[in-house]
Amino acid sequence: MTSKKPILILQMQRMGDLILSYPLLLWLARRYPGHPIFVAAEESFFRPLMKLSPAATYFPWSGANVLKQYSFELVINLSIQEKAARLAHEVHSEQKIGPVLLPDGSRFVHGDWQLYRTSLVRNNLFNRFHWADLNALDIIPHEDMARTRFSEPRTLPPGSDKIGIFIGASEEAKRPSTSFFAELIVHLLGRGLRPVLFGGKAEVESGREIVRLSGAPILNLCDTLGLDEFSAVGQTLTLFITPDTGPMHLAAWSGLKCLNLSMGNVNPWETGPYQAGHFVLRADMDCAKGCWQCTRSRLYCHDPFHPRRVAVLAQHIATGASVDLLQKATPPGLALYTSEREEGLYHLHRMDTAQRGSEPLISRFWKTFFGTRFDLWEEQKCTAAWAQVQAGTPEQAETLLAHIPEISRQLTHGLRKGVLLDASFWMHSPPIARPFTGFMHMALENGNYSRLTWASVMLHLEQLIACCG
User: Fold this and answer.
1) Residue 84 pLDDT grade (very low, low, confident, very high; cuts 50, 70, 90)
2) Residue-range definition of the domain harbouring residue 73
3) What is the mean pLDDT of residues 365-381?
């Protein structure tokens, strides 16, 4: 038996979040050889996935008291649930990362990247870090992540014609309607493809309705397969059309090529299919970028998804069509992306050459800024990204520069008095500044507005000024 202390991961979220923890399990096993890896998770999610998971010992929440008997090398809390933060405090460990809840109700987030992650709540318009990467960045050296090569999805032999369609999602806003899926089936059949419906118990009635509306004798496997069986059946599919949902992440992890119909309040940069070689289709409208919660009268981001055009695109992806054909087949009003690795981290490459506005430039700048602050890259990378913002969107650059004196005024007052002039300052900042002011707000709150925390945030501001100078 090993004498090395175990490592504990708390992942009390849904199935997709658990699967996005799998890369971290692999990296931990390499970084901490000989240390047992424990995972506390919801049993209904981890048990059917155990055959597909990297090596780890799983504990259900009912076994939390057993974990308190161990002394850990490291505890990583990836959950937003209060019970996980409380357990993170109660277990003994040499190091803790993520939220920790003390008996007096005080809550602290340990780790720069986990703190950055908390600052994205209702503030993720310009975020370009994937959850799977954020799970690891406080612990795993960037070099280790960059050296990792995940297998790209399978390409089946010519003539393979089965297309999987997953019809569910955790929220209605995140998935197409039953009528959309019924029409999609008709158009796929018309192009010589054989669609197969997938879903869980919650999708049984929807599956029947889709079959009825389509009028087609298709295979409906809703609520008939376990997750391990789904993974096996996926070996026979040439493509999996799916909303952003747990089975999408399972499909991507098991090597099944995905076309993610990304709609509603999701951000594919954060939760898109993680491995390289998958496809993401997303509405090309401002409100669909970094959508945390829809505030419009209806879901306008669903409108550009036309079943016939999606079927055409799916056929081209399934047959390995050229980039030029994929660009031409992308439906109007939508943007098609492929998942890639860029400098060892997740990246979405937009396949068309349309004018893209200021958002990509601003997003890259903030990605390099926080990466520079947290020691991923040298300062020159941030300076170069800022030069691109100035050249490509000078009005936005001026907006940020004009707001820096107000940020400085707020922080200078806080350094003297211990409070901001305006407690909701970050929300009233212009959008281009909110990645910084949102993080600033969370850092101050996390540090109990101590003088040391004010000084630390001032250092971040000095770096921002230096980068934009």
Assistant:
1) very high
2) 7-147
3) 96
